[in-house]
Amino acid sequence: MNRYILLLLLMFIPIMTFPTMVIGYSPANIKIYINEKKITFDEDPIVVNGRILVPLRKIAEIFFASIDWKDPQVLVKKGDVEVILTIGSSKAFINRKIVFFEQPPVIVNGRTMVSLRFITEALGAKVVWDSRMRIVKISSEGLELPGNENLYKNNVPLIGPVRGPDFEEAKAYVLSHKLLKDIENMQYTPIRFSEFLDTYTMIAGKDEFDRNKALWLKKDKYTGQVVEVDSVMIDEGIDEERVYFILEQKGIIREMVQKIYLAPYNEGNVCWYVVARTNDKEYYYCLDFKTGVIVIENINTI
After folding, report:
1. 106 with 118, same domain?
2. Domain endpoint, select from 92, 121, 139
């Protein structure tokens, strides 16, 4: 009996660890130059599915970018550029926009390996591949490389997405500022589909005129100040049932929907966000709250 259980466990171990495994990679045997300076790595570059992968940490150090880990995701930030990667996934976010690339990040010997071209171009660099000499030449305007190897800044500013206040703080803020007189619903609403991006606190209820209203709050990560991001009157836009009706025209039925919620899209524009899934596809829809027009439609093969 014990032998049988052990056999089953051994059968399932590869499946459970698959997202971090690399199958069929080989040494890249290349030279990499950034602004004409040769770069060395503590884990040699590799080739997976025809793509050159390098240690993410080293690239972040060179570009003076900060890293924030939220396993299995990692946020890379440099100035106004934010890149969110997921280990084992070909989907990424660059400044809240969903992008897809051919080779997902993987783990090799405890190092997170990422596509060299993808991450450097996302950070604003230009990449040229010399196939005859097997040299990658990367240029980044304004980037100065010190002579020492320890480039990483230990004293980086606070990074990562904006978060909304907790429910008690949000409730106190709304009532004290007389934004609502009765609170009926509170929830955290991620922006652009991912909870690893900005997440606001949504509060819905009755205003002083007994109209149904929803508003969103965020909290400054430095000062702790709570501010209102946006608000809508519920009767001025489409409701959830209308969203389902619109999606049915796209072949998305109610049973496929994983998430559906209201949240700001940009200043003065609130949208319905919908994440749906089948066995082999993920669907991401964003519909304008007032008109029902589809703003975002992304379909990803799993």
Report:
1. yes
2. 139
Contact (CB, 8 A) for 194 and 85: no
| Domain contains 89 | yes
Residue range(s) defining the domain that contains residue 216? 167-236
Which CATH number do you get for residue 89?
3.30.457.10
CA dihedral in degrees (54, 58, 64, 68; nearest 10)? 90
* 113 and 186 co-located in one domain: no
Helix H or strand E encompassing 92: strand 91-94
Per-residue pLDDT of the chain (302 residues; tens, 9 = 90+): 545 444 444 444 343 333 444 456 888 999 999 998 999 988 899 998 888 999 999 999 899 899 888 777 899 999 889 999 998 888 999 998 888 887 889 888 778 899 999 999 999 999 998 888 899 999 988 776 654 334 333 333 444 556 789 999 999 999 999 999 999 999 988 877 765 567 899 999 999 999 999 999 998 766 788 999 999 999 999 999 999 999 999 999 999 999 999 999 877 889 999 999 998 889 999 999 999 999 989 888 87
- pTM to 2 decimals? 0.50
Kindly state whether residue 110 falls inside one of the protein's structural domains.
yes
Classify residue 9: in a domain, yes or no: no
DSSP 49-60: TTEEEEEHHHHH
Same domain, 108 and 85: yes
**3-state class percentages of the chain: helix first, strand second, coil last, to nearest 5:** 20, 40, 40
Number of domains the chain is built from: 3
| Element of type H or E holding 216 | strand 212-219
Asked if residues 151 and 145 have their Cβ atoms less than 8 Å apart, the reply is yes
Phi then psi for residue 207, to 5 deg, are: -90, -175
189 touches 263 (CB < 8 A) = yes
Q: Are 69 and 117 found together in one domain?
A: yes
